[in-house]
Amino acid sequence: MVIRNIFLVPFAWCRLCYRASHVDKYTEEDMYRFLQWIDLHANKGGNVLIDVHGLENLPERNGFMIFPNHQGLYDVLAVIEACPRPFSVVAKKEIGNIPFLKQVFACMRAYMLDRDNVRQAMEVIVNVAKEVKKGRNYLIFAEGTRSKNGNRVGLFKGGSFKSATKAQCPIIPVALIDSFKPFDTNTTRPVTVQVHFMKPMLYEEYKDMKTTEIAAIVQERIQNKIDENITG
Asked: How many helices (H) and strands (E) does the chain have?
């Protein structure tokens, strides 16, 4: 990615760092388009093709939450290129200081979740729910950490869905296929990452469910979608 964008990297990096330090100067839409611009150049340079399916499943109105399976550090970048609508992220604090991802998360005004601090975690849940009600979209990895099992989905945790139930918003399952390959495998060959936006679960469908039940349904739907489309 870097070598094939060698002349663009210094310019893009400086712009990214500046924007990450001055987020209040830009609208969320403008910042998201900028991140997509960086993402597109990075993917092109890295021989990564994003194969997108199911955009028609995105709600017409903003104020929804995206729940993908979690394969690797590349996952958020795959969804940024695939999703035409701005969204933010709730991510674990451990990856909040990784160069590049740190700046991207700052531009997205993401929340860094401290899983060892129950009070801070509850504050994040409440704040995300409030923002979703106001029309922001959020992405949360319900597995909590990378599965490290390729295209096998890990256990989805019920607590990850608390913000959605509080916001009473549409839940969008997203199936990522081969998203672990760009960053987590040693290859220079072209890679195709599939991103499948699935039919949303509306509040009327899940309002009487426990969060653990919601998690199990979303996990199963994503794994089924992966199994239907896996190529190797």
From this structure: 9, 7
